[in-house]
Design goal:
The chain is α/β, with parallel strands linked by helices. The chain is built from eight helices and six strands, in the order E-H-E-H-H-E-H-H-E-H-H-E-H-E.
Length: 181
């Protein structure tokens, strides 16, 4: 953020650019079991709600293994799938507001969700809305720092969680289901 002094003429009123939208929608997932249809739903949600940008944030294998303890495809394959999907979408329609975030790929190791959220808040327009699956929402709610972060971000869950974590139900006012959007 620029902290320099800006001089403006007397009587200047800042005009908000209607094209810039509001905040950033971050699709935070492994993207191993995500279909093109689910990606299209996230993109249409970002357009419908006038978000500045849709950020696709694939998790590194080490991060996913620590959360779910199951085998997962290599990071580069899942990332390439997202780049291919974005390229196909650009050929059909303008999708310049979709970004594939590769910060975890550069780190090449386990990244706690707290570090990922700090990075996202530093780089992208706020407020940050996390678009997650019910399983990811429950995993996030089970973390020690959930109560601190739920006050700084909002959650959009792709479908109603069948068995919501107790912390998730406690902060029901800070998240919504995509169907209700």
């Amino acid at each position: 953020m620029d902290r320099g002094i800006n001089k403006v003429p007397f009587g200047y009123e800042e005009r908000l650019d209607t094209r810039t939208g509001k905040g950033t929608l971050v699709f935070y997932d492994t993207f191993q079991d995500i279909s093109d249809r689910q990606l299209e739903r996230a993109a249409s949600l970002a357009t419908l709600r006038s978000f500045t940008k849709l950020v696709l944030y694939p998790l590194h294998e080490e991060t996913a293994r620590r959360i779910w303890k199951r085998p997962i495809e290599p990071y580069y394959k899942r990332e390439q799938y997202l780049f291919d999907w974005r390229q196909e979408r650009e050929e059909r329609e303008d999708s310049g507001n979709i970004t594939v975030e590769n910060w975890e790929g550069k780190r090449k190791k386990y990244t706690p969700i707290e570090a990922a959220l700090r990075h996202l808040m530093d780089v992208y327009t706020q407020p940050i809305f996390l678009y997650v699956s019910p399983a990811m929402a429950n995993a996030f709610a089970s973390f020690h720092s959930f109560e601190e972060w739920i006050g700084k971000i909002r959650l959009i869950i792709s479908e109603p969680p069948p068995d919501a974590h107790p912390k998730l139900t406690k902060y029901r006012h800070r998240w919504e289901v995509e169907e209700n959007c």
